[in-house]
């Protein structure tokens, strides 16, 4: 089943029915999360009170859409538009798979997915973690797996690895598929970073059998590379709050070849 049709995606995007003051529950929580994403923050408590009403008024005014005290289909579509747009993105034709992966990663980056409502929570985390969220739901590998799947569906081909929520499992899948590249090979050997082609996956190495963070790697050399990664921040944390582009040290990582 295509990513867009998965039940955990439809729960984020499908209109839940009209909502107004006095309503409560999961649909109200989603409205509050999206208001926070758009900069019209209000407590994410699942209760549609005066604060949520005021935030909706501000959102509607900024987006220049009609709002008369009720969240209807048009307001809901405006709230969820960033995710809907990323999932419906149509890549240019005839791109090799590694280039497609980078292109789709850039589409996610362009809307700046962030956590909302607490650590490792919110609609973007649930997208990348197939409906799950919570303190323990580190989502960097889920972000990687989602983008790999999106690119594979566009190319009508199988994913190079199955994908996982865990960095160690991504490494194991890459080794089993003959796609794992040790950092010392990429940093010091030949062809070096060029072995990854237009885009690969990096794995931040804690030890020879333990990896603690992952994302996409490109435009690199023996010393450094650029990345697009989820669950990070401006410090490069492995438990941050956003999708961001960073620069990283090549020798500190191992890699997965996608082409």
From TrEMBL:
Coiled coil regions, renumbered to chain: none
Domain Peptidoglycan binding-like as annotated: residue spans: 24-79
InterPro entries in the cross-refs: Peptidoglycan-bd-like, PGBD-like_sf, PGBDSf
Name the record gives this protein: Peptidoglycan-binding domain protein
Organism of derivation: Lysobacter enzymogenes
Taxonomic path: Bacteria, Pseudomonadati, Pseudomonadota, Gammaproteobacteria, Lysobacterales
């Amino acid at each position: 089943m295509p990513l867009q049709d998965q039940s955990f995606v439809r729960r984020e995007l499908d209109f839940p029915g009209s909502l107004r003051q006095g309503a409560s529950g999961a649909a109200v929580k989603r409205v509050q999360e999206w208001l926070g994403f758009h900069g019209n923050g209000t407590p994410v408590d699942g209760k549609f009170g005066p604060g949520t009403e005021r935030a909706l008024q501000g959102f509607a005014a900024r987006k220049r859409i009609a709002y008369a005290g009720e969240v209807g289909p048009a307001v809901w579509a405006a709230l969820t538009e960033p995710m809907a747009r990323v999932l419906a993105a149509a890549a240019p034709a005839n791109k090799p798979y590694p280039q497609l992966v980078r292109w789709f990663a850039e589409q996610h980056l362009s809307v700046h997915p962030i956590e909302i409502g607490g650590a490792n929570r919110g609609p973007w985390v649930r997208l990348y973690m197939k409906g799950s969220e919570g303190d323990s739901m580190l989502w960097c590998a889920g972000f990687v797996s989602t983008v790999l799947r999106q690119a594979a569906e566009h190319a009508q081909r199988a994913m190079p690895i199955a994908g996982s929520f865990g960095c160690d499992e991504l490494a194991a899948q890459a080794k089993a598929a003959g796609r794992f590249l040790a950092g010392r090979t990429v940093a010091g050997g030949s062809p070096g970073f060029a072995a990854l082609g237009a885009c690969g996956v990096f794995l931040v190495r804690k030890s020879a059998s333990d990896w603690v963070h992952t994302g996409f790697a490109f435009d690199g050399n023996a010393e450094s590379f650029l990345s697009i990664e989820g669950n990070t921040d401006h410090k490069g944390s492995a438990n941050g709050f956003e999708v961001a582009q960073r620069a990283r040290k090549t020798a500190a990582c191992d890699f997965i070849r996608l082409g």
